[in-house]
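Service request form, structural biology core

Requester: graduate student, group of Dr. S.
Request type: structure prediction, single chain
Budget code: on file
Notes: please return the result as structure tokens.

Sequence provided:
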Amino acid sequence: MRPAALALGGAIALGSAMGIGRFAYTPILPEMVTALGLSASEAGLIASANFAGYLIGALVAATHFFAPRRRGWLLGALLVSALTTGAMAATSSVVLFVLMRFLGGFASAFALVFTSSLVLDRLAAAGRADMAGHQFAGVGTGIVISAILVAQLAAHGVAWQWQWVGTGTISLLAVLTVAALIPARRDGGGVAATTAKSGVGRPLAALILAYGLFGFGYVITATFLVQLVRTSPAIAPLEPFIWVIVGLASIPSVAFWAWMGRRIGLAHGYALACLVEAAGVLSSVLWTAPAGAILAAVLLGGTFVGITVLGLVGARRLAPGAASRIIGLMTASFGLGQIIGPIFAGWVHDLTGTFLLPSVAAAAALVLAAALVWRFSAGALR
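Core staff response, request fulfilled:
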């Protein structure tokens, strides 16, 4: 199998399940808030339902039962992600929104775990492990595609329901493309490699904890950035563009942070990216001017996918021979942080009328994540 086709298939899978399935909610949210009168707490609850599904999906996907048929589960997860994305258009009930986003989050975790482990294993078998990070550029591409689509539909007065239908349709097309680019093949030795048991030492434990702090640290800005821009008169004109900027910044970030990890060490690169992202999170609430909002979007987009890749590659390096299990544990930690973040931010916003305190807490979590990896994981991840 051609490595380039595998990497492209992985990129399209992550673009569909993550870039669209996970993050289309952010640019569509302001229209939903306006049309349905959702409170920040309700919006945060809907977001957290997606992250709860993501957490549970990651834990389930990490079990040995699914390893022999990774491709089938991947395609099934992409289909569920696409259908639940489009199904958001069919209701105005918060309860059903929560259910759809939960199922979509569950499916996206399956897609991430099996795309990562399957493509990484096949690329390694083909002698092209150097292409492992390319698939993660698909996340940013999916964000850009969905952001442009939503912005164009909104500019022409198209209701939020059709914005969900449009993004869901794109995701459905992705399922067929991924099936063609990642063909069926017996995993053979890959299953053994994926299901091997591995202990969790202090460097890996620190990385897993830091990954959860990263999930909390990025998700508040990632969930509410467009809503924050809409409700700030000084920067409201940026609303159609801000999420596109996030996506565009994320596309080259994988290559940049992979290069940085090789140059200064993977753990140090991870820590530096967390600190840069913390600056972006603070910029979103402390510098309410066009330049501040753009800086926040660039720093968020330019780090969060890179941190994801550095974290997963680092965990795989610390626990060779347990790809699905370790990726599942990392994703579960990340998911737990994401569940707490939007609920906490929405609740505090409803009390204070601002995202300032949640964003400061998010930045502090990112700084702590940087410190943990720098202190405990750097020696093992040179």
